[in-house]
Amino acid sequence: MRIGSIDVGDLNGDGSPDVVVAFQTTFQLTWFSNLDGLGEFSVGTDIDTYEDGDQSRSVKVADLDGDGDLDVIMASKQGDRVTWYENTDGEATFALGVDISTTADGAITLALADLDGDDDLDVISASVFSGLAWYENSNGSGAFSLGVSLEPADDPAGGKDVVTADIDGDGDMDIISASFDGNHTAGNFPDGRILWLENDGLGSFAEGRDVGLLDSARNVVAVDLDNDGDIDLLACENVGGHIVWYENTDGTGNFSEAIAIAIDIGVHSLIAVDLDGDGDIDIATATRDDAEVVWYENLLIEIDDDDGGSDATGTTATPAPTPAVTPSPDDVTTDPAADTGDSDNDSAEDLWTNEMLIAVVSTVASAMFLGLVKILWDRRPRLAVIEAPVGYPNRSICQNCPEPVG
């Protein structure tokens, strides 16, 4: 079976997080109750089942009707649908699905945010053929307006991913998308635009600005990677395997050129989270074909203060050069001098001046969703952890993992 998407939230009001899974090839939307709050999960209960071929590709958990419990919303690629399932009693009794849209042509990804400043959650969809659209939660109770397309009528860009964040620091939520269709081409593959749409605070969006261009953009994440208080963008594409980030240089949406992190052919998805508890954001990626999950540690360089001390959170102000050797699971280098050719390591100017030095630890696991460990009851993969010798990357082997999403 293939998993289209997962999300987590307390659906039955017992104080522990439950899990919702969109099964892509078995055409089910299913939730699993966290029975004891410690990760002992029930057998799955279907919220909905679909006709053959009507694949669910994205699922989100949120309170869409303002009644204090968590509802479920799903995007169907083949069905061109965005569908909301109301949690009617706060105990995970779900109503029949209500279609917010049936014209999201190839709906593949969802985002939820208050786009118009009225204190309820609106819905944004990215669709393969019709691109971006948003749906206003018109009364805060789940009555949604018709979708407003955010694409030029004569040239919609095919959406692959969509997120929201306050890119320009003006207090409202902007939209960022990764696409693979539009005005540019790369060989036989459609384009990979990373696009930012500025919000005026009322849900009116400026024409999209290209932040970057990749061969086939798969994911985009909005996160502060350099700890300077503004939102940067992180992206990956699975054709060339590039994992890059774009620095928000002034906090108002002026982005640097792409800064290379790694090349990992077949990279399929990524997340950004503090994996080692050191206060900065690391990266984890999953590849499509070789079932590998890799994490990249974010190492902020200490910058000398004027008085000769150091500032552990300081970073350089200019974009860093591309590493001489791209980090990979089989080529791990954490010594800046080794990468730059500085044999005596005697000058700060000889060091990489990137905000992030990337140390790579490879771990082999299920290739689609990161952190999916002991979630599904009878269907969950079995995880065996092998302790490696000191100084060698730890590896985790996931057996009987579900096939990654195509």
Automatic annotation (TrEMBL):
Ranges of compositional bias, category Low complexity: 310-319, 327-340
Keyword hit for Signal: yes
Superkingdom of the organism of origin: Eukaryota
Disordered as annotated region, ranges: 305-348
Pfam families: FG-GAP_3 (PF13517)
Record's keyword terms, sorted: Signal
Stored SUPFAM superfamilies: Integrin alpha N-terminal domain
PANTHER family: PROPROTEIN CONVERTASE P
The name this protein goes by in its record: VCBS repeat-containing protein
Origin species: Ectocarpus siliculosus (Brown alga)
